Amino acid sequence: MFYTIFFAAVIFLYGIVIGSFLNVCIYRLPKKENIVTIRSHCMSCGYQLKWYDLIPLFSWLALRGRCRKCKEKISVQYPVVEALNGVLYLLVFWRCGMSVRAVLYCFMASALVVISVIDWRTFEIPVGANVFICVLGAVMTVMDLAHWTDYVIGFFSVSAVLFVLYIVTKGRGIGGGDIKLMAASGLLLGWECNVLAFVIGCIVGSVVHIIRMRVSKADHVLALGPYLSIGIFVSALWGEEMINWYISML
Known about the structure:
The protein is an all-alpha fold. The protein has two domains: 1-98, no CATH class; 124-250, no CATH class. The protein is 70% helix and 0% strand. The protein has ten helices and no strands. The protein has helices at 2-28, 58-62, 77-96, 100-122, 127-143, 148-157, 159-168, 176-189, 191-215, 225-249. Helix 8 (176-189) crosses helix 9 (191-215). The longest helix has 27 residues, at 2-28. The protein is globular and about 60 Å long.
């Protein structure tokens, strides 16, 4: 029990540290800013943060969500993203155990968090995040060469249909970023789980957005990236079981 708790704590801490970097990506990628060389600073007064201001979760809590110098509020997004990434890492290792697949899925989860927040705000999915998932998919394909056709077919399984929709609607029916995301996830998950991911994403997106339109009068145009990300993550961890259950019901 001790080792289990210790292992979980290490994974969670590692997750929130990566989550801190994800916040940098979320803020800077849409602005085309360098995510490595520019030092972290307060968005209000420009105060360059010290190392003790950058401890994931704990610094935000210790400062009560305010800048140490100017006392301006720091967005709650920062601790939420950090904690979410830690929880997602725990879920991945709980489902996949200690394996290379678990590591790849953790990196995938982090990329999906970045995609979700940026797309929610800007209606654009950063190309770099999709390329990153595609690289993970290439690694997965090499690891499972016996089934390489599943991953290659997965690359086109959903994205090809969406691309046709994009052409027919002249870009009004689907975004180019969504097409690239489903192509990258297909290379990582394989075609069956990728199709399932798309179905889950569409169902969740439809339900949530209808509720938002009725409750908060949200516009009819929705950012699909966050919902596709949910579908991809769920399908990655539970897709095979869900598919087998569905087949058994036929």
